[in-house]
Amino acid sequence: MLKSYYRKRDGSLVIDSTRESLKEALIDEENLVWVDIEDPEDSDIEVLLEIFGIHAMTVEDCIMPNTRPKIEQFDNYTFLILYTLGPLSSSERTEDTLSVANGKRMGIVELDICLGRNYLITFHTDPVKTINVIRDKVEKKLPIISRGPDFLLYHMVDSLVDNYFPVVDNLDNKIDKMEEEILTEPSKDTLKNLYELKKDTMYLRRIIGPQRDTINLLIRNEFPFIKPHNQAYFRDVYDHMVRLSDLLDMCREITTSAVEIYMIVTSNKLNDILKTLAILATIGTPPLIIASIYGMNFKYMPELGFKYGYLIVWIIMILTVMFMVIFFKRRKWL
């Protein structure tokens, strides 16, 4: 599905222009065209090739999934591949995804961008929340589309980066709670949850690290379609990416330390259990030794003639076992 926004030189906005109108709009550099393509069809690909002159290799990168963010410079446009986070439907696989609040999971969504002298093209196969928000702003005729395609690109990239902060903050809160759990009442699932947190941290680092490097390239003066006075905005976005990277590095170090602390805590707990059992065994050893030497075969034992003595002995043994099981469970040894 193709959605187009054509801002004329006089400031008027045309939504969903025809192909002929888009061709005419590109002639005048004072015009601005934004084309957003979601879940593309063959006719949408033709628009990229015939009207905008996008290289066939770029179109292939847009159609085929990529593994890393990147930036490339062509004669008439700059091509970027960026990633954002999006919710997964129930039918999608959940391997290599990110766990978020309420048991939901998120996966990466690829956003391909072509920045030209007077146009911007966004290409994505799945819905992107950032694009929908900017669409609403443009349709309300807010000034973000009046300051050139590079400024519109800045708004998109900035929104993409800001979407990571709630996820990273949520991850940081989970790690803080897990640290408290380790030091107070670690359970059998604690180690599993720790590894899940570490996996999520590494997942985010694999996305944000290369994306930070890609945005770093944008703040240099090597790309002709980014105006010098707009470089400061991209530097601000890069600072946000550096902050995200630092937060994730800290989370990775904390989770690694938390695993080590968990091992120490569980080892100390096991040592306490063994120490207590050793004390109990030591206390009970003298009566056992004395009983084994004499065999309890005394001539005068009043209990031997008691009618219910055998039954009482069994009851005492069962109650003793039950008491020990309850005692061990309350101490969380079982």
Secondary-structure blueprint of this entry?
Blueprint: E1 2-7, E2 13-15, H1 19-27, E3 32-38, H2 42-51, H3 56-63, E4 70-73, E5 78-87, E6 98-99, E7 105-115, E8 119-124, H4 129-139, H5 149-162, H6 164-184, H7 190-218, H8 231-294, H9 309-330
Parallel strand pairs: 3-8
Antiparallel strand pairs: 1-2, 1-3, 4-5, 5-7, 6-7, 7-8
Helix pairs in contact: 5-8, 6-7, 6-8, 7-8
List its traits.
15% strand, Beta Polymerase, domain 2, 9 helices, 2 domains, single chain, 334 residues, 56% helix, eight-stranded mixed beta sheet, alpha+beta
Account of the 3D structure:
The chain is α+β, with helices and mostly antiparallel strands and 334 residues long. It folds into two domains: 2-265, Beta Polymerase, domain 2, CATH 3.30.460; 298-334. The protein is 56% helix and 15% strand. The chain is built from nine helices and eight strands. Strands 1, 2, 3, 4, 5, 6, 7 and 8 form an eight-stranded mixed sheet that branches. The longest helix is centred in the C-terminal third of the chain and has 64 residues, at 231-294. The chain is rod-shaped.
